[in-house]
Structure prediction request, 407 residues.
Amino acid sequence: MSSPLASHSDIIILGAGPAGLACALKCQQLGREYLLIEGSNRVGGRLGSLYEDGYIFDLGFQVYNSAYVNTNRLLDLDELNLKYFKPGAAVNHGNSFQILSDPLRDISKVFSTIFSDLTTIKDKIKILSLKNSLSDYQIEQDHTKDITTLEFLEQYGFSDKFIKSFFIPFFSGIFLESKLETSSKFFKYVFSNFNNGLAAFPCEGMQAIPDQLLSQLDRERVIIGSPVINIDDKKNITLDNGTSIRGNRFILSGESTALLDGQKGEYNAVKTMYFSTQNEIINGEYIHLFPEDNIINNIAIPTYISNSYSKNSDHLISVTILESDITETQLVKDLQDRLSQYYGGSPSTYEFLRTINIQRGTLKQPPGHFDRSPKNRKDHIYFIGEKVTNGSIEGAVLAGLNVAYEL
Prediction:
């Protein structure tokens, strides 16, 4: 997957996550000389999938939002063949689920949503108000005081019951932190995107997104599997194999910024555990939330969205766990019992497949995060990625595009 090593390039981009790939693609479109270097053996960073034993295991539960305008422009959406979740969520209470959906986009669930006892009349009015106020939200144009997401929801007037039954489990699964201490500005950004688009998977898994971006690049300008270990003051980078490459300008994404400042950023961790079953699961087209479960944050059944996620004539179940200190053996048993309780069948009908532990799941974005974005340290060094914009695919892509235009 590596190109022949170059000895010089005008622009050197470190990191082939969404930001680096987008930056390289825009440099190519603008006719600029670039070299994209990725230390690992695949592109995409935390955005990706593993393909094993006939299953697609995404690297944690991830979705692509169809409202990502800038990313959409770089992708062939027809080729990705996006498959969509139903809008809203199935919220579990005990042995039953209630559907909370957007009645304007999911007319079949209009009555269950309107008459759900998880929300008050005031909550329903507040949701419509929030949807309207954030329909065209942009973080850089928000000059209100930045507070935690939880504080924002409480101040907005949502009921405690609705916050605990929907907002906390739903957005905990996105932020990967259960107290909603994430910046309210990022919450507004995410809410706006869900309001304007739908959560989706590419038919062949999330890895298809970075792979498609890579396929558009000149492979002679891409080096994969060669970590950069140093950038010196004479504008040279050194790879782990000792190779030196000279550049005029360096664009650092993701953790490559630590080559300069030593700061790797603070991240939220997440554990995703995959199971398979022959059982049919009601409302499998929704994301399932578990506000009363002390282990499970959310469950998705990818095979109800795209049957490519399993070639074994069964259903793949993705269980997101934010915090757990019990052993994996006990955790597997506990989850099999809970899956049986929630979806029927005996515990043995839920076969454990694998665990994916992600220590750097999402960048922590507390209040004030967007006022502390890293600045370019020298006239030849630029930063891109989530540290510059926000912790989303679209945010990373936009950061990459902005620097390419600036150059």
The two ends are 27 Å apart (CA to CA). Residues 8-47+207-265+365-406 form a domain with the FAD/NAD(P)-binding domain fold (CATH 3.50.50.60). The first helix runs from residue 18 to 29.
